[in-house]
Write the structure tokens for this entry.
Amino acid sequence: MRKQLVLQPRIKETGLQLIKGYNFAYLDEGTKRMIRRAILKAVAVPGHQVPFGSREMPLPLGWGTGGIQITASLIGPDDILKVIDQGSDDTTNAVSIRRFFTQTTGVRSTEKTWMATLIQTRHRIPETPLRAGQIIIFQVPIPEPLRFLEPRETETRKMHGLSEYGVMYIKLYEDISIHGHIATAYMYPVMVHNRYVASPSPIPRFDNTKMNRMPALQLFGAGREKRIYAIPPYTTVKSLDFEDHPFEIEKWDHCCALCGSGESYLDEIVTDDQGGRLFVCSDTDYCQERRAVGHKGSLPDAVKMAITRVKRGD
Amino acid sequence: MTNAVNMSNLLPGFPDPVLGSQNTFRQVLDAMAHPGRVIHLDTGIQSPRPLRGATTAVCLTLLDFETPLWMDLDEKSDVSGWLRFHCGCPLVDSPFDATFALISRGYGVPTLDQFNAGQDEFPEQSATLIIQVSGFTSGSGRRLRGPGIETFERLEVHGLPDNFWMGWHLNQRIYPLGVDVLFTASSTLVALPRTTAVEE
């Protein structure tokens, strides 16, 4: 009965129908229980990859099936869901996942970071700091940070068991010897709770610092690779580095052309074939919230509206 | 396991099995993500004696045919029949074989080293202990630190044997191996994952 009360307004608002014939949140209860147990163990051993019986989902592998299965095991009628893809609420992956949960649960969704209880994300952490009580769910293509250095699962498992991460430091050292600095721009490995090296998923290293002692719970789901891992709130997360080559995040010489922010992660947009380009916030919600309270970038208003439409895919 | 379940006095599970277990799981996850925090479960279910509301809800949410269970209760007890009907979990004789343990009398909890602590490569295979205690006092007592706790949390757990905390120190020393604990008391829940350091 309670379910019905929540479902009606959302369905009206979006014009979407609740799909009949499926369990609440699509997965069967046995699968949810199995995933829930894996999540609890993942939280108990921060950064350790817990295997789980990943199911076939109505989206292809690589479209966030790991994140979707975690979200499906968590979500309830009181939740407010936000889904982002590269910082944007409006791109294909985000739209289709949000629609999937609207149609299988009827729960409310939002684009506002502060309003969401569950945030499923592909490749970004929102600029607005997450608060205690929120849960962020990362879609992870390759959960094993050592995989490109050691292809054998039996070996990487042993390396994690023995906390033997020398090979990762050698990789970072080689970066420095070849490029003069650590050239890893995304999926930059982190040390969780001083024990496990984990992949932050392919977020830009700009976002790595947000993971350290984050008040929100961070869950990571890899559907194809069948792994779940977690970082509890207020857990120490350190990006690997060297004393003489400390970890650094990306910096831009520009501010966002739309909202003028000099603190957000910027996307580069090519505007013509004469070398013209501009930089705008990757986090669309953050950018819009700033413009709503009067922050302005360098662009004329008419151009801003056109860019917003292009980013929205209108 | 050959005893038939006595259907005449079998109590029901969640009024809404899907949303009941969803809601309970979120509370358990909240507890696990914030060790030492006392979480109130709104279960609204009847429990087979001597289980209490929070214990019953946690069992219904997490146990099934994939989770061998060890418990301190007799196989002929109401709880045994109730578990077999609602959860279908196999009951095992040795604590070491269990992925979950149900301890209805906290003061009689076996030493933690009798349970599976996992292996170096599979620390997630360790046991989860559901320990029913008489109550909690938060804000005073032992000092808890670790992931999920911003600075420290203070908690006293009532109805545990004196040697439990000694056992917890040993459990801590084998990290990342070790068991995880869910304490339950009437309709409240406190989690103690293996990462939580407890000082006097």
Summary: Chain A has two domains: 2-143+196-239, 266-312. Chain A is about 30% helix and 15% strand. Residues 1-9 of chain A have pLDDT under 50 and may be disordered.
